[in-house]
Amino acid sequence: MVQDTPVTDRDFAALFREEAGSILTEQQINDEIEREQTRSAQAARAGIAPNRFRGFNLQRYCKDIVRSHQPLSCLYLLLSDLTGAVSVLLPICCLLWVVRRLIAFPLAGAYCVCAIVCVCFYGISSICRRRLRTLLSSSVPNATTLRQKAGHLQIISTVTAAILSCLLFFVYQSYFQQITKFASLQNIFLWFVSMMFLSGVHNVLYESQCISFFAVGWYTVAHQKSRTASAIRHYTEGRGNTPLRPHLVTIRIYLMIALFIICILDFLCIRQCLMHFDYAVLTLGTVSTLCTLIGVISLISCIVLFRHCSKN
Predict the structure, then answer these.
(1) Domain stop point among 40, 70, 100
(2) What whole-number percentage of the chain has pLDDT above 90?
(3) What was the pLDDT predicted at 2?
(4) In a domain, 198, yes or no
(5) Same-domain pairing of 174 and 77
(6) In what helix (H) or strand (E) does residue 157 lie, and over which residues does it extend?
(7) CA dist 38 to 69, 103, 135, 181, 221, Å?
(8) Cα(84)–Cα(126) distance, rounded to whole angstroms?
(9) Is the per-residue pLDDT at 100 higher than 50?
């Protein structure tokens, strides 16, 4: 592991510059690369594998660091963890649903236990990785002390996840009837889709070009002409010498198709809630409505930028 660290550092530097090049300043990028080299050196000195604080997806790790410098970074990390946990949970629930056809057992109880264990252990391990990253960023002179602290952190996270799982299981036992109504495979799937929607929207909006594009429509709706002009200038400068009009035509077509699909989803969610109220459908409908608003504002951005192109 120690021998692979320099190669991994070079990979991190290249990927991080690619992810952060249009979002962070050069000074911020260099500072983060320097901090990562410190973490890597500390981990190598203590014999800690880089995967323990980076995870197994280096590109995702770079993106998480970039998002930590942007607004609502906690929301992004929370949605990422929830989406990751439910993406692990969903196949397990599908498997349990199939197995139940062969063996009779309470499906709702199995769903809840799986959800408790999956979310707790996935979420706690994610928090543990971030805490370990913070620990490695600090200056610990003794490698043995650093190794001990990392070991204690791992033990604490495991015990915390186990205790939290037990507490949630007792809550499930106490409120069995209420939880059973929401533990169907359909509801779990709808919540998963809702979180994927939220995570995707949050991720896309933070892309450098997208946020300036969205800002044009937002400031137009808010009647802030000076900021609208600034957002238009920022977006057009970011495009460089690339022709803007054909790009806007493509975006407008995709936006209209997306809005058509999302409006149908809005209608179905509202209809379902009126016929038979369901929290999972309500969650999906709320996220779908949010996506509709974002789509409408983006369409306004398109119209404003079209007018800007016509004037020029």
Answers:
(1) 70
(2) 3
(3) 38
(4) no
(5) yes
(6) helix 143-174
(7) 19, 53, 11, 50, 46
(8) 10
(9) yes
Instruction: Give 3's pLDDT tier (boundaries 50, 70, 90).
Output: very low
Residue 287 has pLDDT above 80, yes or no: yes
3-state helix, strand, coil in the chain (%, to 5): 85, 0, 15
CA distance 47 to 263: 54
The token duo for 168 is 């949630």
Instruction: Output Rg (C-alpha) for the chain, integer angstroms.
Output: 24
Cβ-Cβ contacts under 8 Å for 110 (sequence gap 6 or more): 96, 100
Q: Among candidates 5, 3, 31, which has minimal Cα distance to 16?
A: 31
**Long-range CB pairs of 86-95, under 8 A, 24+ apart, other chains included:** 86/118, 86/119, 86/188, 86/191, 86/192, 86/195, 87/192, 88/118, 88/122, 89/114, 89/115, 89/118, 89/119, 89/188, 89/192, 90/188, 90/189, 90/192, 92/118, 93/185, 93/188, 94/185
Beta-carbon contacts of 171 under 8 Å, excluding residues fewer than 6 positions away, are none
Is the distance from CB of 50 to CB of 133 less than 8 angstroms?
no
In this structure, which amino acid lies at residue 177? Q
Do both 239 and 271 map to the same domain?
Answer: yes
Task: pLDDT band for 264, please (50, 70, 90 cuts).
Answer: very high
Is residue 64 within 8 Å of 32, Cβ to Cβ? no
Asked if 227 and 301 sit in the same domain, the reply is yes
CA atoms within 13 A on the CB side of 36: 27
| 3-class secondary-structure state, position 156 | helix
Q: Taking 60 as the threshold, does the pLDDT of residue 24 lie above it?
A: yes
Three-state SS sequence of 13-64 = HHHHHHHHCCCCCHHHHHHHHHHHHHHHHHHHHHCCCCHHHHCCCHHHHHHH
Asked if the structure places residue 113 within a domain, the reply is yes
Query: Residue 70, SS3?
Result: coil
pLDDT at 1: 38
Residue 269 structure tokens:
């969610």
In a domain, residue 197? The reply is: no
